[in-house]
Amino acid sequence: MRATTLPISKDHSIDLLLIISIVAILTTIHVLIPSSLQDQLALQPADPQWHTLLTAAYVHAGSNHLQTNLIGYLLTVSYVYWLCLYIDRRLWFRRTTLGLLVITPLVVNSANVLLYGTYLPEINGVTRGFSGVVAAFVGFLLISFTAAVREVHTAEIAQTIAVGLILLLLLLIDTVYARTIRPIVGGLVAFGICIQAAPVLYYHDWERSVQTRTRDQLLFQIAGGGLIVLVLVILTLQMFPTELVVNNSFVNIFAHGIGFIVGTAVSAVVLFYCSS
Question: What's the CA gap between 24 and 33, in Å, rounded?
Fold first, then answer.
């Protein structure tokens, strides 16, 4: 594991500039571009224009819509970058970030066209906003956390934690909309986690990994891991809220789910190629 406290260099400044530039671009588009032009950049699923599959992610319905997405983006990308610094994977961070900014809008908005334009043509309106991309960065955060666990411990432990987290987040989403923990769902999640954890416990991978760490290292890793899990929970609740209509606007949880899958897949693939 590389040192966790690193000096800010010119290369780090470029990384930070990339992060901040996204905020600047979204804000500039919302403030300076006329509303009539923004409407043309938004996606109409019933009558899509090819360029809006990309541009719709970068325009917003209002200041509150923009602010919510910017807060979610900055929260997520800050922790992603911290983890990438921790495991010395800044090239992976840059390549994945640039990929998500292009790939996620195209995939999410193509799915929106298929869902609303083909299967639900009676639903009128436009689709716009950066929330699908934010959801992709949440997927990136999950993979970053898994990569950090693998770097510190073992691949088996990392896999167990990743699968366990995904199952727990799915249970959280189900609980939000069912408004209770359904026994069958809770039982399946518990069974899945036990199946994943059993080999690690049986072969004492966790015990051997813990024994090689100092007390300070363990405390730092537990605190950092707990914080990441908390952030993932908060972001999941933001992506999948109880109320699907906020300020007369529909919260597109379908797009959020697709964005999360895209972010998970793209970050995992780019990590593989960066490691090879």
Answer: 13
Distance between CA atoms of residues 121 and 10, nearest Å? 50
| Structure tokens given for 249 | 């606007």
Q: How many CA atoms lie within 13 A of 85 on its CB side?
A: 18
Using alpha carbons, list the distances in angstroms from residue 239 to 54, 134, 207, 253: 20, 9, 36, 7
Q: Are 131 and 207 in contact (CB under 8 A)?
A: no
Per-residue 3-state assignment (H helix, E strand, C coil) for the chain: CCCCCCCCCHHHHHHHHHHHHHHHHHHHHHHHCCHHHHHHHCECCCCCCCCHHHHHHHCCCCHHHHHHHHHHHHHHHHHHHHHHHHCCCHHHHHHHHHHHHHHHHHHHHHHHHHHHHHHCCCCCCCECCCHHHHHHHHHHHHHHHHHHHHHHCCHHHHHHHHHHHHHHHHHHHHHHHHCCCCHHHHHHHHHHHHHHHHHHHHCCHHHHHHHCCCHHHHHHHHHHHHHHHHHHHHHHHHHCCCCCEECCEECCHHHHHHHHHHHHHHHHHHHHHHHC
Tokens of 215: 């007390």
Q: Are 135 and 67 in contact (CB under 8 A)?
A: no
pLDDT in tens, the chain (276 residues): 444 444 456 677 888 999 999 999 999 999 999 999 998 999 888 788 889 999 999 999 889 989 999 999 999 999 999 999 988 899 999 999 999 999 999 999 999 888 876 666 656 678 889 999 999 999 999 999 999 988 887 788 888 888 989 999 999 999 999 989 999 999 999 999 888 877 776 665 555 555 556 655 666 667 777 889 999 999 999 999 888 776 667 778 899 999 999 999 999 999 988 876
